[in-house]
Please model this.
Amino acid sequence: MGRQSGVYEDARGRWRVDRVHRGERLQGRFDTYQDAEAWLIARCAQIDALGPARTRSMTLAEAATRYLLEEEAKGKVSLQSETYHLAPMIECCGDLQLDQVHDGTLRKFVESRLRQGRAHKTINLSLGSVRHILNVAARKWRVDVGGGRTAPVLGQVPLLTMLPLDGHQREPQPISWEEQRALLPHLPPHLARMALFILNTGVRDDVVCNLQWDWEIRLKLDGIEVSVFEVPREHVKGRNKAYDYVVCNSVAQSVVDAMRGRHDQYVFVWRRERTSEGKLKRHDMKPPMAYRPIEAMNNNGWQRARSKAGLGDLHVHDLRHTVGMRLREAGVAKETRSIILWHKDHSMTAHYSAAQVLEVRSALELIREETGRENRSLRSLAKQARRTRVPSESLQQEQTA
Model:
């Protein structure tokens, strides 16, 4: 017999079983063909006795709820992001049984999101979350099917097709010093402090939201007070997670010092302050008005500020790209830039020496303010040229008229 029947002889002369029967994959190794065939027939009969696979399934909405609750119990950091990307998927396709989820049934979701103008990467994040849930249902979750037996909730995981990213991915948009000066005054005070911290450290915004006082290490190096935050591995992005560090330059240090005493755990917090009339909104009038952690920076306050500053669809993550651009313009070595932006190879040591802390802080001091240096990147020069070209062209048209 050959591979099509599910029983075949391998290169070592042993007989193997590899077959999918009613959504469940059956695999085994045997000394003789007769043993392999008998085992396969018996297992297929057991599966047939369990009834249709769909009776052992659950809806996509039920599976997503179970998955999110399990991950919440583990304290998964990216849970909020996964919930955000799963929400539109569940709204569109939540009634599907897990064994009905495939490219064909998810097409209406993809087409709907494309009509709404969503980026391919955003849609892929939703598809990726669903794919992960299907894998968990097939490999981890079991259901009692009677007779003391269990079966996987999903027999076989379909191959979900991701949308192409080439030509559809948003380009990073680092901001100039002029744009920074336009943005910060429009931001609410708590977001302005966080944005300034990112612009002087290069750290990701989700780390800033979760930054805690327990992570702080106060150092005195060459007579300089330096705060270094040791970020736990669960807050570090990437597969090979390890502890990483945020080093403060003088501007970031002043931001951190200004936040001391506001909250026992989190560095960056907020509370609703008095309105311009000196009154509090009704639901905030009961004392005390405690400071609260900030869940995300990309909120209504951020979107209103970027609109007022004329910065289009500026993302919070663009501030991090700005740090990378400014470090390059300042002539900072690639290895030091990689350490600051956490792009370093994990074969490098994750434990900074005092010399490395000073090296990183010195590099970050170079971007604390505008210097007018001529070593500007082509990207920033081109951006400035496009910004100044429009008024000059308009003036020329007026003069011609």
Summary: The first strand starts at residue 7 and ends at 9. The chain has three domains: 3-49, 60-152, 177-274+282-388. Residues 3-49 form one domain. Residues 378-400 form the longest helix (23 residues).
